[in-house]
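A reminder from the course coordinator: this example appears on the midterm review sheet, so study it carefully.

Given structure:
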């Protein structure tokens, strides 16, 4: 008796064949011949794979997985389903092949369930286990209490322990969970250390909904946003870690934390006792001084790390542990001082006793002016920074810098981290511990001339860095990855420039960062960025920059379906365009913004009229051919929405021809996707597949928006071809990608396709 037909497995294979055919512009029969030859069977024999009559051995699996991985829009999820349905989901060789072809990447998880986190890199070379405190926190997180407070004096190791616990809970295996270690699907890390007192409930809620895959919720009113975030927290196990709670001043956040809904939990660190939280059910865990065993291990480890010779013997270690109250930060500073002055650490102990603040002050006083400049410059960066940048901002040459940095590190006044999995993997970066940051920032306030010069050098670095790696770079993901590494520092410079000047730096940074925030779906950042850029342009009386900033703001909120949020800005833009003879890109952006505002209100003729003005007056206003091509594309989409299919097709074909002539692959791919959508409207699967294949070749590494448009069309094609389960997966990802971009209309259209086409 033959095998029972597996329709889901059949649809998986058909999706692969059709997608490869579209991407390679081959016929379906041609792809089947190629696959049959690779597997070692005949084309007729290959047909048996569709109906589960052929044996899926390792060779067949290897061929199918490899073929899928070579196609731009086939995902790891497809491979996982193939292994499950063909019975190979427990085969070690197949799983290893899957990881080789699609390396697991938790940062990329959008529509797929998986473990996600924004945990910072560890600031310690190795972790000295604090077993008692670790066990107490573990038990507290496993209990019914919604919130756990890890309490202890400054420098005692709260942040390191919290990070270690969070990482362990995120990576907890089934066996570890059975043994009592709480497991969490997502860990969200928030720290108030870089900008004490600036952490607010609204910002925490924004981070929660963004990391949990629903960034569109950030635009809700505060009460609705809180309710939506709580619904997400109820849907999965999330550990929210808030470091440095003692500097948080927002009463709304302090009131909300003890109410975090199950099964999610909050873990916070604080130097101060929080009786008001304990009265509301928070579980208190006190991190006390290191025990003799823990302290001895830490002293041995840190002595080896800084090269202290001779390292303290066991008797000396016990003296240090007692004399410094078992505080690891104080121990590290004293060991560094011992190395630098050549005296045994026990001799230094008698002079300073165990006051951490006095130790920091003594260490600072022992620094040379050059070494102090490095520390002062580092306090200007909210996040870690590379050595080359720190030396530049400190105003010292590399020779002097590297001669000084070791002493700062030995004294534990600065912390060192090594980036992993970023655009600058392996790069050494420096940051400040909260205790030392607080002291050094106070010193910076006394150094007005140096602070002003250092801020100017910081601004010069930021402008140059953003100009090199930022801007409109749809086909350069590596450049945007560099921006991601420095985003917190660049944003701090932008905020300072927009608040204190120079305004020109603020405008340059706004222009260079806005595309990064757009492609990363950080539209909340762009909202603030455009508003700050508008104010800076007004102060400079720069009409061109003001026109651009106003237009970009109107475009953003209009595309997100909320043109009413930009009524004042649109009115100012219209008035400006009437009083100023806008030329070139400024003229295009102003009219394009007006068109999109009309389109968001379904005022199609008014939108079309604005785009037509660009086409009619483009030559006399100096509009580039690239922008004319873009205008044709948008006018085509407008006519498509009006139901004028023939006109839409002509306009999109014209835009496509111009894009190909100009070498604009992104625009050409966008037009091919739009034309594929028109073909799908008339159920022409062959033309749609051909056009999507062309789009995949033109733009093999699209940004999020381009990918979303492609997936929407691909999902519709898969549904038309009868591959319902895979079509649902594709359309779901498209809808979620549109949602991340805040493109509500497009997201709704993808959901409509999901409901009507993939059922």
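Designed residues:
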């Amino acid at each position: 008796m033959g095998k029972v037909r597996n329709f889901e497995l059949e649809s998986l294979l058909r999706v692969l064949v059709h997608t490869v055919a579209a991407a390679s512009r081959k016929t379906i029969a041609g792809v089947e011949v190629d696959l049959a030859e690779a597997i070692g069977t005949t084309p007729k024999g290959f047909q048996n794979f569709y109906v589960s009559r052929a044996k899926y051995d390792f060779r067949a699996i290897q061929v199918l997985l490899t073929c899928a991985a070579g196609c731009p829009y086939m995902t790891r999820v497809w491979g996982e389903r193939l292994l499950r349905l063909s019975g190979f989901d427990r085969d070690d060789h197949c799983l290893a092949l899957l990881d080789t072809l699609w390396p697991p990447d938790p940062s990329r998880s959008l529509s797929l369930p998986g473990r996600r986190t924004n945990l910072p890199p560890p600031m310690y070379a190795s972790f000295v286990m604090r077993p008692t405190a670790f066990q107490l926190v573990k038990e507290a997180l496993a209990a019914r209490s919604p919130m756990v407070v890890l309490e202890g004096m400054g420098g005692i190791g709260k942040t390191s322990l919290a990070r270690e616990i969070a990482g362990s809970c995120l990576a907890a295996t089934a066996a570890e969970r059975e043994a009592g270690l709480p497991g969490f699907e997502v860990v969200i890390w928030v720290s108030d250390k870089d900008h004490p007192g600036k952490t607010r409930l609204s910002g925490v809620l924004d981070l929660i909904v963004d990391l949990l895959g629903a960034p569109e919720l950030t635009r809700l009113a505060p009460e609705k946003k809180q309710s939506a975030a709580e619904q997400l927290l109820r849907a999965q196990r999330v550990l929210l870690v808030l470091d440095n709670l003692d500097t948080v001043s927002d009463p709304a956040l302090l009131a909300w934390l003890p109410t975090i809904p199950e099964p999610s939990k909050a873990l916070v660190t604080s130097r101060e006792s929080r009786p008001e939280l304990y009265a509301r059910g928070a579980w208190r865990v006190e991190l006390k001084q290191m025990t003799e065993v823990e302290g001895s291990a830490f002293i041995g480890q840190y002595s080896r790390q800084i090269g202290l010779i001779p390292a303290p013997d066991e008797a000396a270690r016990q003296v240090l542990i007692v004399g410094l109250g078992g505080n690891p930060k104080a121990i590290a500073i004293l060991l560094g001082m011992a190395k630098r002055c050549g005296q045994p650490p026990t001799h230094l102990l008698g002079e300073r006793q165990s006051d951490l603040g006095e130790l920091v002050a003594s260490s600072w006083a022992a620094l040379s002016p050059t070494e102090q400049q490095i520390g002062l410059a580092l306090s200007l960066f909210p996040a870690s920074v590379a050595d080359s940048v720190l030396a530049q901002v400190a105003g010292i040459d590399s020779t002097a810098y590297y001669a000084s940095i070791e002493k700062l590190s030995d004294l534990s006044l600065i912390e060192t981290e090594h980036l992993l999995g970023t655009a600058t993997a392996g790069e050494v970066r420096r940051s400040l511990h909260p205790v030392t940051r607080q002291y050094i920032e106070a010193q910076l306030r006394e150094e007005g001339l140096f602070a002003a010069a250092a801020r100017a050098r910081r601004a010069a670095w930021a402008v140059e860095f953003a100009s090199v790696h930022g801007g409109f770079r749809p086909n350069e993901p590596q450049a945007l990855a560099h921006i991601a590494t420095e985003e917190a520092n660049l944003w701090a410079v932008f905020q300072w420039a927009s608040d204190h000047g120079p305004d020109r730096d603020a405008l340059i940074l706004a222009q260079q960062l806005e595309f990064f925030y757009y492609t990363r779906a950080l539209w909340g950042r762009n909202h603030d960025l455009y508003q700050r850029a508008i104010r800076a342009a007004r102060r400079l009386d720069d009409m061109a920059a003001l026109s651009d900033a106003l237009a970009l703001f109107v475009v953003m909120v209009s595309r997100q379906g909320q043109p009413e949020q930009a009524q004042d800005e649109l009115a100012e833009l219209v008035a400006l365009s009437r009083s100023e003879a806008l030329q070139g890109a400024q003229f295009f952006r102003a009219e394009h913004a007006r068109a999109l505002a009309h389109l968001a209100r379904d005022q199609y003729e008014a939108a079309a009229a604005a785009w037509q003005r660009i086409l009619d007056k483009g030559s006399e206003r100096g509009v580039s051919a690239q922008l004319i091509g873009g205008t044709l594309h948008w006018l085509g989409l407008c006519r498509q929405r009006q139901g004028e299919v023939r006109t839409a097709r002509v306009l999109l074909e014209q835009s496509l021809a111009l894009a190909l002539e100009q070498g604009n692959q992104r625009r050409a791919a966008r037009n091919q996707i739009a034309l594929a959508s028109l073909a799908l409207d008339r159920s022409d699967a062959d033309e749609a597949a051909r056009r999507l294949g062309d789009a995949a070749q033109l733009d093999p590494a699209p940004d999020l928006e381009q990918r979303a448009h492609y997936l929407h069309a691909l999902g519709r094609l898969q549904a038309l071809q009868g591959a319902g389960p895979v079509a649902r997966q594709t359309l779901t990802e498209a809808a979620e990608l549109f949602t991340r971009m805040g493109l509500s209309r497009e997201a709704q259209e993808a959901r409509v396709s999901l409901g009507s086409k993939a059922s």
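The longest helix spans residues 477-500. The domain at 624-701 is CATH 1.25.40.10 (Serine Threonine Protein Phosphatase 5, Tetratricopeptide repeat).
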